[in-house]
Amino acid sequence: MKLKSLLPAVLCLVTAACSSGDRYIAISGYAQGGTYSVKLNLNGPDGRIRESPDNIKKGIDSVLAAIDNSVSGYNKGSLLSRFNAGEKIVPDDIFRNIYKASYKYYVESDGCFDVSCAPLFDIWGFGFTSDSLPSRDRIEEVMASVGMERLADTLVTDSEGFASPSSQLLARESGNDPEILPELNFNAIAQGYSCDLVAGYLHSLGVSQMLVDIGGEIYCEGLNPSGKPWGIGLDRPLDGNNVPGQDLQGIFRAGPEPCGVVTSGNYRKYYVRDGKKYAHTIDPRTGYPVTHSLLCATIIAPDATEADALATYCMVIGLEESKKFILSRPDLEGCLVYDEDGVLKTWTSDGLKFESLD
Length: 358
Known about the structure:
Distance between the termini: 18 Å
Helix content: 25-40%
Low-confidence stretches: 1-20
Structural class: alpha+beta
């Protein structure tokens, strides 16, 4: 599921509605198998940002390269790929922070968000391999080897600073088989974390008004060049709607308070076998793709890391439980699009600034 900024991707944006001296620029590039786009005001609260647009882009690219080298499962030389291959690694702060956050959301979600389920994603064809439609026996076999309850809640390192899959396993008394090493997949949280890390870099330069879009995951704060909250388009969750922004369900308004805006959905990553659709959201509790009516879940949270993890959580638990969850959290807003007898329906929390295009 992709969210799309409605701001045109141009180099420099100056509008009459902006206060005197405002200068908005747009920076874009490639990252994490897709594209990124960053819009920011070079006029910060403490004066003009001193870094040039070219240097800012270099800084953003450097942050994204560090993330790729740490937790990408597609980069065979990354720390994550080496860890999953059974190697010892010296984890960097990115790896440590994402692991810690992932364990936190595992606990808070009662196991619905579980990055240790990489083998499950793989056998269904939604991970780092091309497998698909596993047998029941294969699913049961893999289910016995996953689950973050098998693992320590923080990365365990030896006296030389090395971490390994075996060091993460809890004591054998916990029922762990030491021959089955854990594998991790951070796809459900890494892009949100990437948005927050890029935003942190921009904050260090003095930027206070920005929209960071990495593969559809968004962090934003402040106002857009027109002096209004940022406009973010929500793609209509229909199979075949593969071009972000081409067919919108509605438009969000986010800001000026800092927030992450992330949507998780089941209409782009799926396949059909014998007339049945298998979508990429796997329920870690069962080992199977979800089959409920919820097509996509958008979460607006204080940061993009949390929005990313909780949007995935909602896609696992389904429509009614997601409504209850969102309403139980005063720090969250949410939008749920679901199928009701072949008709798309939209539910939004009371505080969400959402304009439906239906």
